[in-house]
Write a structure and sequence with these properties.
Number of strands of chain A: 3
Largest interface: A-B, 60 and 49 residues
Family (chain A): Belongs to the ThrE exporter (TC 2.A.79) family.
Pfam family, one (chain A): ThrE
Largest sheet of chain A: 3 strands, antiparallel
Oligomer: heterodimer
Distance between the termini of chain A: 77 Å
Number of helices of chain A: 10
Distance between the termini of chain B: 39 Å
Helix content of chain B: over 70%
Structural class of chain A: mainly alpha
Protein name (chain A): Threonine/serine exporter
Order of helices and strands of chain A: HHEEEHHHHHHHH
GO cellular component, one term (chain A): plasma membrane
Helix content of chain A: 55-70%
Shape of chain B: globular
Number of domains of chain B: 1
Strand order of the largest sheet of chain A: 1-2-3
Radius of gyration of chain B: 18 Å
Structural class of chain B: mainly alpha
Number of domains of chain A: 2
Membrane topology (chain A): Multi-pass membrane protein
Order of helices and strands of chain B: HHHHHHH
Strand content of chain A: 5-15%
Largest sheet of chain B: none
Shape of chain A: elongated
Chain lengths: 260, 162
């Protein structure tokens, strides 16, 4: 094609770049660190014979360029799904060891993108157990376990529902936190001694733990833009949770409710 | 305290499940959660230790996760994220929230600032262990894991591949 380029494979197949960009976008949208996304995309590119490749990954977009072709992907919806991170990581390892045809890679990528190991109903149980255990860790009594489990499960129900109808993350966090508080308010109303531990258990299910962790790891790698963006996102999310939780609590206290 | 460490392990496993982690990775995350909480709660017994427990706990989480990631060829995130949740200062945020709602501004500000500090010490602990250990482990990548390889093979659950 290009008379000035010597050797072969200087102009890569645009389809290769597209598939690689899709892999990176899926990884980024599921909560992967910037360095991991760049690394995975470069490894995949090398496996398909694209040597001179430039990759830029931002928290909200990624660019891949090779031989005059550029592919851009915009990332709008981010969520936490470590199964996707693990399976794309595994896929890129497998492919760099023994390359598979591009069509097969595309197929396995589509599978990896929908990798979710547990059913949504099982997630309710996990959220409940997490909330119950946390309520004990922050000093709750045995009687606090059940309301905390209910709180955790309720939070997860609301969060999944909001995500399904496509509500923005911050608003979803706020609504879910407002619901998470209800079992604690009920506990306080019926004079259970420590409603606080029930409340903390329910709310911690929403904690932006992954954002905080990836922010730190991006900062170490020198991806400052992404680190700053993720710190901001974590702070906003924490603020939304606190605001959402405050609303029912405020109403309850304003109506003269008893709080231990 | 032993009960607390166990609960911390349960919490780590539950959050791991919530974030779709599976198999032996989950077990390792639970162990990391248990160990780090045990050390942190011993440190919190020292009078006036302040946020030292949180810092050292995060340090241990980061260090063990980095080693586990190297041994099991999984992203370190899979171990850090479930195990770090128990250290998140949710209770301080709650106290701050309730104090503000009850018009106790001073104690609200105090709890809120403490929560920020605690989050900061968690970040520093994680950052320090990762920044120091990652280059070290990368250097010895070829020699170090060989005597420990059996850890990788002895998975407790059958790992499902997707």
């Amino acid at each position: 094609m290009n008379p000035t380029s010597r050797g072969r494979a200087q102009t890569p197949d645009p389809d290769v770049l597209k598939v690689i960009a899709d892999a990176g976008a899926a990884l980024l949208a599921s909560g992967g660190e910037v360095a991991r996304v760049e690394d995975t995309m470069q490894r995949l590119a090398r496996a398909y014979g694209v040597e001179a490749v430039e990759v830029i990954v931002l928290p909200t977009a990624l660019f891949i360029n090779a031989g005059g072709n550029t592919v851009i992907r915009r990332i709008r919806n981010r969520s936490v799904n470590l199964a996707v991170v693990a399976s794309i990581n595994q896929l890129s390892r497998d492919v760099s060891r023994n390359p598979i045809p591009l069509g097969e890679l595309e197929e396995r990528l589509a599978q990896a993108r929908h990798a979710s190991r547990y059913r949504p109903s099982a997630n309710l149980l996990f959220a409940g157990v997490a909330a119950g255990a946390l309520s004990q860790l922050v000093g709750g009594r045995g009687a606090d376990v059940l309301p905390a489990v209910i709180g955790g499960a309720l939070t997860q129900i609301v969060r999944q529902w909001f995500r399904r109808i496509g509500l923005a993350n911050g608003v979803g966090d706020m609504g879910a936190a407002a619901v998470a508080v209800l079992p604690a308010v009920a506990c306080a109303y019926w004079r259970v001694p420590r409603p606080g531990s029930v409340l903390v258990g329910g709310i911690m299910v929403l904690t932006p733990g992954l954002l905080m962790t990836t922010a730190v790891r991006d900062g170490i790698e020198g991806d400052l833009l992404s680190a700053a963006a993720r710190v901001l996102e974590a702070l906003l999310s924490a603020g939304a949770i606190a605001a959402g939780a405050s609303l029912p609590l405020y109403l309850y206290l304003a109506l003269g409710g008893h709080w231990a | 305290m032993i009960v607390g460490a166990m609960l911390s392990g349960v919490t780590a496993v539950a959050f791991g499940l919530l974030y779709q982690v599976a198999g032996s990775t989950l077990v390792v995350a639970g162990i990391i959660g248990t160990l780090s909480w045990a050390v942190a709660s011993v440190l919190k017994l020292i009078h006036g230790s302040g946020l030292l427990g949180d810092f050292v706990g995060a340090l241990i989480v980061g260090a063990l996760a980095e080693v586990a990631a190297r041994l099991k060829h999984e992203p370190a995130l899979m171990f850090v994220v479930p195990a770090i949740i128990v250290f998140v200062p949710g209770e301080l945020v709650y106290q701050s929230m309730v104090a503000f709602l009850q018009n106790h501004f001073l104690s609200g500000a105090q709890s809120g600032l403490s929560a920020l500090m605690a989050a900061g010490s968690l970040s520093i602990g994680l950052a320090l262990s990762t920044a120091v250990l990652r280059p070290l482990l990368r250097q010895h990548q070829t020699q170090l894991p060989t005597p420990l390889m059996h850890l990788k093979c002895g998975s407790i659950f059958h790992r499902q591949r997707i």
